[in-house]
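User: Fold both of these, please.

Assistant: Here is the first one.
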Amino acid sequence: MDMNSQEIRLRILKLLYEKDEEKPNASVRFDTIKSDLGLEDEHIRSNIKYLEDKGYIEISKRIHYRYHLVKISSDGKDIIENKSLLKNEFPSIQIIVQKGKINIANQGSQNTSVEIDNNE
């Protein structure tokens, strides 16, 4: 799977958003993110660090510079739930919002979607 950093970041946010919708305020293990996205450690780690620096996710446990528990922040939820913010933050990704679903289509990558409560 060939994804650019923006697509990896968006997929991480979407995954954490979905997990939070299933169980509010839940933290997700790094290994779960890795297996669900099917990516190598180095692709996930650098993008998790970026998302944390932007305030979109929170890391609640680190051991020896390794991330163990990650959850979406309120700012991260705002990005996913607001079509304008989403498109501004991820301009190189084709994002289509229809009937409460975000669809991501990126050339050379797999398409994905997630249901949201989009109030915009």
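And the second sequence with its predicted structure:
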Amino acid sequence: MKYLPIIAVLFSFIQCKTIKLEQNPPFKIEKASYHHWNGGQPGVSGTNIEIKLEKNSNINFDSIFFQNKSTAAEISTTANGMIVIGNFNSSKRQRKSLILDSMNMIIEIGQTTKNIDDIQGQYIGLMKFQGSGLKFLRNFYKKTKEESKKTGENPLNPNIDFKKSYMTDFIQGLINAGCKIKAISINNGWLELDNNDDYRIYNKMHEDGKLSEFIELENRN
């Protein structure tokens, strides 16, 4: 996590035409920080900003600006003050392969492709390993990690550092090493949730009755 030098800027709107810069905003920033994150699949990434105020404020924070970009501000209230949060999503979606054999065993996963026939489903990140499969996984991880240290190259994905490997890289490596991994189909649809922006969008779709276009959720009392 890195800390940000912060200049607090508060604008007052007068008669909807004039913008006045407030030199002494009615709040004090205790600290501000940011960290970059990467999702479990290639192309999914972003930056989270947190600005902690010394005490709660009745100011309505609308947006956070960072590196020439803006996003909606979220507020988290704690016993010791208030935190203003900004989530900047920089994800770049790419078509990724998921090829299965006749027994639903995965042949290829997570490789960039332009052929729609190579996308027989979508990996959602839910996995189960047990028994000898779990032992194989542990040994394979140790082996690839040691190989990366010795050669300076990532045996799972030569384009990125070993520590930044995606789970799909690891699964494909297991398959290439002889591990049999079976895909379990989900027929009810699914939602990809990477950040708070996605959560807000899905809530709005649910309120508008549009979420059922993607998934049918059970009603729980």
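The chain has two domains: 2-89, 96-185.
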